[in-house]
Amino acid sequence: MIKVSVVGAKGRMGSHVVEAVNGAEDTSLALALDAGDDLTQITSENTDIVVEFTVPTVSLDNVLALVAQGVNVVVGTTGWTDEKLDQVRAALAKAPRENQSVFIAPNFAISAVLADYFAKVAAPYFESAEVIELHHPNKVDAPSGTAIHTAHAIAEARKDAGLGAIPDNTQTDGGSRGQVIDGIHVHAVRLRGLNAHEEVLFGNAGEQLTIRADSFDRISFMPGVLLAVRKIASGNYPGLTVGLDHFLDL
Questions:
Q1: 133-188 pLDDT, tens digit each
Q2: Which residue numbers belong to the known binding site for (S)-2,3,4,5-tetrahydrodipicolinate?
Q3: Mean pLDDT by 10 residues, the chain (250 residues)
Q4: How large a percentage of the chain has pLDDT more than 70?
Q5: Smaller CB count within 10 Å for the chain: N or C?
Q6: Where does this protein hold (S)-2,3,4,5-tetrahydrodipicolinate (predicted)?
Q7: How far is residue 53's CA from residue 190's CA, in Å, rounded to a whole number?
Q8: 154 and 176 housed in the same domain
Q9: How far is CA 82 from each of CA 28, 85, 88, 223, rounded to the nearest angstrom?
Q10: Binding site for NAD(+), residues?
């Protein structure tokens, strides 16, 4: 049995993780902690993997503390920057146990991960590309980590293909063109009734390709969470891994 502790266990995502861990045949719940609880309760003796689902303002400190305590961490909290990732890498380099692991997922939904992958495959074949992400208004970060990850992937694929800048003759922006990430415009919608959705638009003269992934319920993230837990528990992914695509054999 893989012993799993959950940090953020009373949150919207964390509560689903607790149920998923309790419901799987190969995982057992060790500790369920939430805001204000003492993370030092989690040790390598009582926990194999920690699943961290909190908020961007505290996630980095949580991960650094857990690494220092000698446990592996699977992170679903978004809002990660290159600077924060570098801090995690530095912490892992000084970790108390050899081959410790941290896994960070921009998105745990298999559909979203595949959409991101398909977007990277399609990117070299289109002159224009834009990303629209749509979420519930309780989400604290914008644009989403998934959309940022998708934009980086599209930009990388375009660069490798030798493509230039995306055409855009807009003269007065006023902020309506979205955040520009590696030359890709990313738009964030926050609307009551939505859960988690992403649409990637590609265009050439006379044609358009739309790739869309919709997660209507948070339960859709649980197969991805359990996949990450199992992969990290295997010991085959030391250090920092970002993105569930590493586990899907794409």
A1: 999 999 888 999 889 989 999 999 999 999 999 999 988 767 789 999 999 999 99
A2: 136, 145-146
A3: 97 94 97 93 96 95 96 93 95 92 94 94 98 94 90 96 94 82 96 96 98 94 96 96 92
A4: 99
A5: N
A6: 136, 145-146
A7: 20
A8: yes
A9: 33, 5, 10, 27
A10: 8-13, 34, 76-78, 105-108
Whether 187 is catalytic is no
Neighbours of 230 (CB within 10 A): 16
- The CATH number linked to 83 is 3.40.50.720
SS (H, E, C) 131-142: EEEEECCCCCCC
Neighbours of 209 (CB within 10 A): 15
Residues annotated within a binding site? 8-13, 34, 76-78, 105-108, 136, 145-146
Query: Is 221 strand, coil or helix?
Result: helix
> Is 197 found in the same domain as 120?
yes
Q: Are residues 100 and 191 in the same domain?
A: no
3-state secondary structure of 46: coil
Q: Which of 16, 120, 135, 149 is catalytic?
A: 135
